[in-house]
Amino acid sequence: MTTTLPPPSDDELQQATILRYKFQEIRKQIGNVIVGQDKTVEQLLIAILAGGHCLLEGVPGLAKTLMVRSLAQSMSLDFHRIQFTPDLMPADITGTDIIQQSETGSRQLAFAKGPVFTQILLADEINRTPPKTQAALLEAMQEHCVTVGGKTYTLSEPFFVLATQNPIEQEGTYPLPEAQRDRFLFQTIVDYPTRDQESEIIERTTGSGNGTISSVVTGQEILGFQKIVRMVPLPEHVKQFVLDVVRSLRPKDKDVPKWVPQWVQWGPGPRACQQIVIASKARALLHGRLHVSTEDVEALAFPVLRHRIVPTFSAQAEAVDSDAIIARLLKELPKRKANSLPPNSLSN
């Protein structure tokens, strides 16, 4: 099938250029506080543009909390942090009805909002609280609203949940159910800094200077940028490549590679296709392009798919994790090529 995309209008070019410039400035502001972690920061920005949530996984001390707080400051967004603990209750997240007495002496129920009523919510160590409390975030993440006492309260827009979890310590933790993990656009792995980066971290944090962050965009601007992302064209060959990747990870589908049923117990659902596409559109804009390429899909396949794959016992016994499965699939899967694409890259 021939892929022909219409050339972008002058207005679309201007909007996309502003978006890219603003988010480059956000990266600079975060860089005033955070050393390195370029891939993690980019995935956070893509999640914001795509309107999705992000699960950050990394050992303690890698500045995950500081990174999220810096992101909120650079975007003029309300920020709340919840430290998840085994005794945390759902009402501690959503809020609850309390009895208030008026000046006349009458009593009535009033809703006291919980910390979920914000724009960026940091769910710190989300796997340390039981599933009942973890589930208190499900409605907020999916519907952007909270129901308490039979009443539904709408959250402010934009709304993002950025959660962290420690991959090492497993005592006293509760792994997220598959249904809740699927609500996260990305599962981002936060890795150790390089030697040079760690040297700079020492210089920055043990001296007298402190990095400062200035606001770059507002919440309303972010909502506008999210609409621009959805306008990015999706070439037919890229859509077919997304379908190839996701459907090849479903062991019961026909024509999957022979090794997939041996390594994959459950594969990703249709939400994976949707989120790869919307995230790839955001990445294309950040990289100065006005259409999605297979390069975007390959770059984002790991954070989108790694938490949507359940390896088999055989794979776990062979120390084969989700990333190894995705890497092998991308290596073996033939690339689909475009027949015709316009030269519509953005100028720097």
Looking at this protein, list some descriptive labels.
single chain; 348 residues; alpha/beta; Rossmann fold; Helicase, Ruva Protein, domain 3; 2 domains; two-stranded antiparallel sheet; 15 helices; 11 strands
Quick description:
With 348 residues, the protein is an alpha/beta fold. Helices cover 43% and strands 16% of the residues. A five-stranded parallel beta sheet has the order 2-5-8-1-9. Strands 3-4 form a two-stranded antiparallel sheet. A two-stranded antiparallel sheet has the order 6-7.
Tell me what you see in this structure.
- The protein folds into 2 domains: 1-229, 3-Layer(aba) Sandwich (Rossmann fold), CATH 3.40.50.300; 232-339, Orthogonal Bundle (Helicase, Ruva Protein, domain 3), CATH 1.10.8.80.
- It is built from 15 helices and 11 strands.
- The relative contact order is 0.16.
- The protein is 43% helix and 16% strand.
- Strand 3 (95-101) and strand 4 form a beta hairpin.
- The chain has 348 residues and is of the alpha/beta class.
- Helix 10 runs parallel beside helix 13 (294-305), helix 12 crosses helix 13 (294-305) and helix 13 (294-305) runs antiparallel to helix 15.
- The chain has a 5-stranded parallel sheet. A two-stranded antiparallel ribbon has the order 3-4. A two-stranded antiparallel sheet has the order 6-7.
